[in-house]
Amino acid sequence: MRVMGVDPGLTRCGLSVIESGRGRQIIALDVDVVRTPADQPLPQRLLTISEHVEHWLDTHHPDVIAVERVFSQQNVSTVMGTAQAGGVIALAAAKRGIDVHFHTPSEVKAAVTGNGGADKAQVTAMVTRILGLQAKPTPADAADALALAICHCWRAPMIARMAAAEAKAVEQRKKFKAKVRAAT
């Protein structure tokens, strides 16, 4: 499975592509950070991110995209910018029929380090180790994008099993209700 990991942001947007092999084997294919100037108008910043992401999608052909879920931060303008960047990414994927999965920072940290409260240094160190990289990916946005992709690779089988179980439960619920209606 080829996964594109995205750490969305307006100033720095981390992009990565990894490929999973057997078991927990993962190979890093590419990583970069898209930067936009803070003094540039918002539409131009979003356009820059969109153009880079679309180029990556057309170049790397990922099977799925893993994006960091924005849930709460203290700086509202940062949350808004991050959410807008994430929206541009999800839209580009939707245009190509690529599934998008959102993971919280604590899910990513737990998957990569075993600790949902790990700091950036721990995440970077584990990403470097898991991928067998010669040097730590920098800046942190690059390491975070790789961590998101790793997280999705390792969580995807569980996500698929959960979806199948939920679908089966819905079907069984429908059958049960039909039996109850038929009996009354």
TrEMBL record:
GO molecular function annotation: crossover junction DNA endonuclease activity; DNA binding; magnesium ion binding
Matches recorded under CDD domains: RuvC (cd16962)
Active site positions, chain numbering: 7, 68, 141
Catalytic activity, as annotated: Endonucleolytic cleavage at a junction such as a reciprocal single-stranded crossover between two homologous DNA duplexes (Holliday junction)
Amino-acid positions noted as binding Mg(2+) 1 in the UniProt annotation, renumbered to this chain: 7, 141
The UniProt record lists the keyword DNA-binding: yes
Subcellular location: Cytoplasm
Cofactors, names only: Mg(2+)
UniProt-listed GO biological process terms: DNA recombination; DNA repair
Residues that, per the record, bind Mg(2+) 2: 68
Record note on cofactor: Binds 2 Mg(2+) ion per subunit.
PROSITE patterns recorded: RUVC (PS01321)
InterPro entries, alphabetized: RNaseH-like_sf, RNaseH_sf, X-over_junc_endoDNase_Mg_BS, X-over_junc_endoDNase_RuvC
Enzyme superclass (EC): hydrolase
Gene Ontology terms: cellular component: cytoplasm; Holliday junction resolvase complex
Record keyword Transferase present: no
Similarity comment: Belongs to the RuvC family.
Role noted for this protein: The RuvA-RuvB-RuvC complex processes Holliday junction (HJ) DNA during genetic recombination and DNA repair. Endonuclease that resolves HJ intermediates. Cleaves cruciform DNA by making single-stranded nicks across the HJ at symmetrical positions within the homologous arms, yielding a 5'-phosphate and a 3'-hydroxyl group; requires a central core of homology in the junction. The consensus cleavage sequence is 5'-(A/T)TT(C/G)-3'. Cleavage occurs on the 3'-side of the TT dinucleotide at the point of strand exchange.
UniProt-recorded name of the protein: Crossover junction endodeoxyribonuclease RuvC
Biological source species: Mycobacterium celatum
